[in-house]
Amino acid sequence: MSAKYYTQFILTDTYYRDGNEFCGVVELADPMEQHSDSRDIEAILARNFDLQKNTVKLLSWSRLH
Question: 8 pLDDT band (50/70/90 cuts)?
């Protein structure tokens, strides 16, 4: 069952230097654990942008119902 989340994050990769803050809805094939570590979420977002996981800084993350 998929799950949707509203998220805000910053990309710290030099390519995104001028426009590095993003927000929007992310849909995952499987819901995240209730108390997931922010590093896990940053890794998912980094994979989506084809970046290293240390280039994503999570600002907020909440599940949509």
Answer: very high
